[in-house]
Amino acid sequence: MILIIALILVSLIAIRSALQIRKIQTRWSDLLRGASGENLETLLYDHLREKMRLESDLVSVRKRVEQLEELMSTSKRHLGLVRYDAFEDVGGNQSFAMALYDDHGDGAVFSGIVGRMESRVYCKPLLNGRSERDLSQEEQRAIRDARSAAPKSIVSP
Question: Can you list the alpha helix ranges (DSSP code H) found in the chain?
Answer without folding.
Answer: 2-33, 40-73, 137-147
